[in-house]
Amino acid sequence: MAVGIEERMVPHMGNKKQDCKKIEELKRQYAGSEMSGEQVEQMKKRIEEAKMEKRNESRKMHTVRNIVAAAAAVAAVFVVLPNTSGSVAYAMGNLPVVGKLVEAVTFRDYQYDNGGHAADIKTPELTVKESDTEQMTDTEVQVQENLKKTTAEINAEIEKITDQIVSEFEESRKEEEGYQEVVVKHEVISTTDDYFTLKLMCYQAAGSGAEWDYYYTIDLKTGERLTLSDLFQSGADYITPISENIKEQMQQQMAEDDGKMYWVDNAEVPEWNFDKITDETSFYLDSDGHLVICFNEGDVAPMYMGCVQFVIPDEVVADIRK
């Protein structure tokens, strides 16, 4: 979760009758103080553009579907590097991993702190370990080739995101006055025999804070990047049941906790209400195989709620899952 967001941003809600009044104030704060920062808006817009551009490229690169093969589990390696110049890139070798196909390493560690401007940016890179193709089946060879394409695509997307963040940070710190903090880190949040998910967390603070998270899931049976539609039968409507379940979870959470608020079914500000997910909505599969839908700060709730997630019960999509 993002840190540094001031407590004053969270209005105390004594009961549900006050929600409509409070929501207008939240909307004003959200549209005003939280989202008026030019740096925050530019960074979010450019990161989203990079995400969309690379995702479109990934779809063009897909060539093989439904390949049935066994694949080893993969795991990430987290390395804390000493403070160094931002121009130095690190290619780490001899790192312990679980699994034999893919490993995650810290490719670059950008550190800066002058007391007013601070950056801690660790750029991950996924690599595919070479195997003796003569000892592999045709299917296994195809999976390895797909993995190379997929990891190259993910690495390019992450590098573009972090390069943009570093560039904007360096431009901003030319002004000696003021305060700015930027953090980029990564985590493997789910690794099974079938799927591998890397989470990239981007946090920026300039008076107030904002966080954006990105999820990269690889189907280890095919070696390809997993999309939301890949989880469901061809032609199935998965958007409606998932969206309706998320609304139910939002309502239930608000009923049980007055401190929680989502933009849902509110007549006062209908334009802010969550309607439905899209094919581009972030997701991952947890260690138990449950679908988890993810939203960034401000997407479906006031900024103080942070990045929120919803675990979709199996029965909601059981009839349409592959």
UniProtKB/TrEMBL annotation:
Residues 229-313 form the DUF3298 domain. The chain crosses the membrane at residues 63-81. Pfam families: DUF3298 (PF11738). This is DUF3298 domain-containing protein. It comes from Roseburia hominis (strain DSM 16839 / JCM 17582 / NCIMB 14029 / A2-183). The keyword Transmembrane applies. InterPro entries: DUF3298, PdaC/RsiV-like_sf. The lineage of its organism: Bacteria, Bacillati, Bacillota, Clostridia, Lachnospirales. Residues 33-60 form a coiled coil. Gene3D superfamilies: Fervidobacterium nodosum Rt17-B1 like (3.30.565.40), Heat-shock cognate protein, ATPase (3.90.640.20). Keywords: Coiled coil, Membrane, Transmembrane, Transmembrane helix.
